[in-house]
Prior knowledge:
The complex is a heterodimer. By secondary structure, chain A is mainly alpha-helical.
Amino acid sequence: MATDTGRPADRDGGIVERLNDRTFRRLGVVGTSAFALGVALFLAYVLLVQVDYGLLVNIVYPQFTFAFLRVIGIVLISSVLSVIAGVIVGLARVSRTRITGGIAKGYIEFFRGTPLLFQLFVIYIGVPQLWIGQFPIRQFNYYAAVIGLTLNHAAYVGEALRGGIESIPDGQMEASRSLGMSYIQSMREVILPQAWRNSLAAIGNDQVILVKDTSLLTVLAIPELLSAFRNINSSTFDAWTPIVLVAVAYLMITIPLGKLIRTLEARADPAAKGGDD
Amino acid sequence: MSLLEFEGVNKYFSETHVLKDIDLEIEEGEVAVVIGPSGSGKSTLLRCTNRLEEIRSGEIRLDGVPLTAEDADINVLRQRIGMVFQSFNLFPHKTALENVALAPKRVRGVPAERAHEEARELLDSVGLGAQTDSYPSQLSGGQQQRVAIARALAMDPEIMLFDEVTSALDPELVGEVLEVMRDLADGGMTMMVVTHEMGFAREVADTITLMADGELVERTPPGRFFDEPTTERGRQFLSKLL
C-alpha cells in the first residue's frame, strides 16, 4: 500500500536542501545582530572601563597627532608617486616591444613576489652599504620609506592598469590608429581614459593597502602610529588607550580614501557626465 | 595611375596563406565592392590597406606612394584612408560630436571650435544633427555606424574602406547606413566596400571583385557579374545566394 505523505522526495536531504530562502535570511539577521551586539558590548567595555581618558588627552597631542600627520604626509607623496610610476609600469607591461614588456614583467614579479618589509630593508640598510665612505643623505629612513612604498605599489598599480588596458577591445586602438592618431595619442585619448575607469577600483584598493603598509615603517625608526602605540604601551603599560587611538587614526584615513575612490569612479562614468571635452 | 594599387600582395596568418598574389587597381571615384564567402580574405585585404595587418610580400600604393614600405609614414597615410568597421568601434567615453572631432583636433591641430562646427555639419549630413551630444551607448546600432562614417570622413580622406559595416546591425537598421553610403558614392567618393549586401552591390558598385580562398577570382561590372559571371567560382557563389 502506498504511504505517500505528499512531501517532496528531498525531505530527507542535507541542511542546504532543507533551508529555504526565508529561513536563511532570518538566520542571517539573527547571526549578524548577535555579532553586532557582542561587538557593541565589547566596545562599551573597552571605552568605559579600559580606556584611560586622562592618558588619552595627554597622548593625542602631540605624539599621536604628529604620528598621524607624518603618516598622511608619507601616504600623500608615496601615493601620487606610485600611481605615476604605476602608469609607466602598466604602459611598459602592455608594450609589444619584447624587451620593454619583459623588464616590466620582471619588475612586477620582484616587487609583488618579495615582502615589502624586506624591500624596505634592502633600501634602508642595503643601499647605504654600497657607498664608499659616509652615506650622504641624512634622515635616509624617510626617503627609504617613500621609495619602498612607491616602488612596491607601482607594481600593483601597473598590474591593475594592465588589466584595465587589456579589457579594452582591440577595435578601439584600431579605430583610433585608422584615423591617423599615433600610438601615444591613441593611448592618451582613447585607451587610457577607458582603462583607467576599469582599473580604478583595483588601484583604489591598492592605495588603501598602501596606507596600512605605513605601519611597517616602524622598523625604519619612523615615529608613525604603531611606533606611537609601542612607545606609550612600554612607558605606561596601558594597552587599550593607544589601541583605540591607532584604530581611529587609520580609519580616519582609509574611510575618506574609500569615499574619494567611489567618487572618482562615479565621475569616470561617461553617462553621468556632461558633454564637456 | 590608379588611386589605389595592389601588386603581388601576399599575406599569411602564421602558416595559412590568406592573400595569394593579389593584383588590383581601384580608380579615383570608383565604388569597388568586394564579395566572397567568409574566410576568403576580403576583410584581410581591406585591413592590409591601412596596415592594421602587415603583408609579407608585394606592395600597396596610394596615389603612387607605397604605403607598405618600411619607412612609410603610416600616421600620415592613414589620414588619407577612412575606415569603417563591422563593430563600429566608437569611443564609448566620448559623445558623438567628440568622436568625430577628436582626430581633426589631435592630428591636424584644428582649433576645437572649428573642429566641433565641422563635426556638427558631418553629423548633420548623416542625419544625426540631433544626436551630437549623445554617447554611443545611447544610440542605436545604425546611428552608431553613421557616427563612425562621419568620424572617418572628418579627416577628409581620399578613399573610404567599409568592412562589413552592416553585418552587426539589426535588419531594420541596415537601410539607413546603406543610404549614407549611397550618398557618399553619388558624391564621387572612392570606396572599397566589403559586404554581403548584394542589392547594394548591384545598384551602387562600379565593379564587383569576387574573392575565394585568398585569391582574386573575378573582377567585372555588377550588371555582368550578377547576370552572367565569367568564372565557375563566380557562378557557384551566386548560386549559393539564391
